[in-house]
Amino acid sequence: MELLPEKQAIIHADLISAVFYLLSGWQEFYSDERDQHGRFPYAASVQHQYGFVAVPVVNYYFDVLKTAIEHVSGQPLRPRRWADGRAWAAFITHDIDNLYSAWKAPAKAALQRRDWLDFARRYWQHLTQKDAWDNLTEVQQTVAEYGAKSTFFFLPEHRKAANGTPNADYQYHRISKSVAALVTAGAEVGLHGSIGTSAHEAQLQRAIGQIPRLAHNAQGLRFHYLNWEPRITPLLVDELTFAYDSTLGFAEHFGFRNSYCLPFQPFIFQRGEVADFLEIPLNVMDATLHHPRYLQLAPEEILPALTPMLQEIERFGGVCTVLWHNENFDPANTRNGPREFRAIMEYLRSHNVAFVNGSDICRSFHHLSSGACKGPSQPETKSF
Ligand SMILES: [Zn+2]
């Protein structure tokens, strides 16, 4: 960029089209590449090709425009401030896939070793004791220790998908009392859309009906397995009037799928306009950090690996969205478990982050959308 003294600015790079390309998800919409879960793969992205997944380049482009506007107008543009005047925000979320399956893998391993005694002990524990993953209160309390509040996405489908992919290991209607207790204690609740709901309107509509609407609470969404079909999902989420979605991150790598570290209204190609709902991009998921098909970071490598990304979000006053499944609050997980979660939370707190939930974020972006923060439309309204 070249600045001229006479209240003019000339920007040589075609910033606007670069911004639009990344923010709209153009590469996903026009690509036929999908992985075994039907997702646009990180390996096919420009972020992977040019190695900038952890750099929010759209924010850098906007910064160039901001400098130009400040030069031309002679007025400094004030940066966004979060609660209590804090410079950046963090959104702590939990997808609830499993509540009762902690015992299964060790029991299966005991069977394979033909260690009948160990198997019998584990099976007996399973019959008589609470499962280690039945821990929603502990999850909420752990998060609250940092002055943060949890957002739980519940999966109202317990049957497997047609292709055998598992959904929940629990039945949502049977845990409604625990959900109500979480809400009373200050948690936010959202819908975790089961396999198929990201591409089929009737299925998504049915799922909405299964999650009771809590006044100004259940208005957000994240799809199971981060399922997102760029040619269909934005339209569905918009038509069913969710206030926000928080699915858009790459499962394979932490960082910025749309190269932007703030919530934004996704572009709907079929309509040539932006959606009403807010996308709150997902930056880091527990499974990404240690998984056979994703990264295999050692516990002590996790925070150093994430730090440059966290610094970028802080620099631009963005939102850091963290997904930590309840099953990874099990102390038996020493790879991407409670210790690694706490290390991230300590970093966030020590860097003076504002802990917010989806409703807080919607409220701060209120001026962008056509109406108030809406909840999903419901065929029937139930309460606990
Ligand atoms: Zn899930």
Helix-strand blueprint:
Blueprint: E1 2-4, E2 8-10, H1 15-23, H2 26-29, H3 46-50, H4 57-73, E3 89-96, H5 104-112, H6 116-128, H7 136-144, E4 151-154, H8 176-184, E5 188-193, H9 201-210, E6 220-223, H10 233-239, E7 244-245, E8 267-268, E9 273-274, E10 278-279, E11 284-285, H11 286-289, H12 299-315, E12 319-323, H13 338-350, E13 354-356, H14 358-364
Parallel strand pairs: 3-4, 3-12, 3-13, 4-5, 5-6, 6-7, 7-10, 11-12
Antiparallel strand pairs: 1-2, 8-9
The protein binds zinc ion.
Sum this structure up briefly:
The chain is an alpha/beta fold. 35% of the residues lie in helices and 12% in strands.
Account of the protein in words:
It comes from Hymenobacter endophyticus. This is DUF7033 domain-containing protein. InterPro entries: DUF7033, Glyco_hydro/deAcase_b/a-brl. The protein contains 14 helices and 13 strands. It is α/β, with parallel strands linked by helices. It folds into 2 domains: about 70 residues; about 250 residues, Glycoside hydrolase/deacetylase (TIM Barrel), CATH 3.20.20.370. The strands form 3 sheets. Strands 3, 4, 5, 6, 7, 10, 11, 12 and 13 form a 9-stranded parallel beta sheet that branches. It is globular and about 85 Å long. The N and C termini lie far apart (about 55 Å). The site of zinc ion has 4 residues, from loops.
